[in-house]
Structure formats: C-alpha cells, structure tokens
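FIELD: query
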Amino acid sequence: MKKYKKVKLIDIIEFQRGKDLTKENMKNGKYPVVGSNGIIGYHNKFTTEKPSITIGRSGNVGRPFIYDGKSWSHNTTLYIKKFKSINPYYIYYLLKNLHLEEYGGGSTVPTLNRNDIHQQKVYIPEDLRYQNEVSNFFISIDKKINLNNKINDNLDYLSYSEMVA
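FIELD: result
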C-alpha cells in the first residue's frame, strides 16, 4: 500500500505572479507567452523554466496549463517558480483536480491570490517513483487524447473539403 502525506501546497510548490508584457513590447520569438487562457503570443525572452506550469490568476482563474519548455508567464497568471521534492507533472495533474477557480475573488474580474491557494491542503504520495508512474500514465492518456483530436480535426477538414468541392 502506498503511503501518502498531507501537506500544504506551499510545502511542495511555490507560486509567483507572472510578469507584465504588453502586445507592443512582445518581440516575436520562440517562447510562448502564457496568459490565463493559454498561449497569447510569443516572445524572445522567458520567465519560466521547463516544465512551465501556470494557473490563471486574473480573469479565467484557477485553470492550470503545462508547457514542456520555457515560457513567459504573463501577469494574468501565477507560475510555479519552485518545485520542492515533487514531480512537476504530478503536481500539474493534481492542480487540475483541486478546483482552484473556487478561490477566485473580486467583484468584476475574478482574481486568484497565491497566498490563499498556498494554504490548500493536499495528499501526495511519499514515493517519488510512484509520482512518476502516475504522471507517466496521465501523460500517455493526454497524448492519446491529443492524437484523437488531431484525427477528428483532419476528418472534419476532409468532410468540409468534400462538401465544398
């Protein structure tokens, strides 16, 4: 039986507010600029190392994104600046299931405060190898979903092409 321990998120990860970057200051580059809804552009500099995990901080709050590379974390996000003895992919899948959108406050534009979510308590497996196994399982499922989505997009395109022709 696997052993789990109860910890606060701050014990295993540390969130940092993203950096402001206007469209005018965005230089065309290879690093994705990640906003609260995903990629909003590309820049020639990065703020976040590989893997880059962000969650929406302003607007679309609480939704995690992961990029297997360096990126610029926009000020509408919180990014994980430090992983503390935890598999980054395991924490990504954990964050997807914590319903962090419920922590959003604000009257007109929802906002997520990192100090509030740092206190969230979670159970994690003590064994890093088990975290790796779980992460690899979910990564393989995500790859299969992405492949199926591409196949569906191609089928839609082919169907549309036949109707137009």
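FIELD: remark
Helices lie at 9-12, 88-96, 114-118, 128-164.
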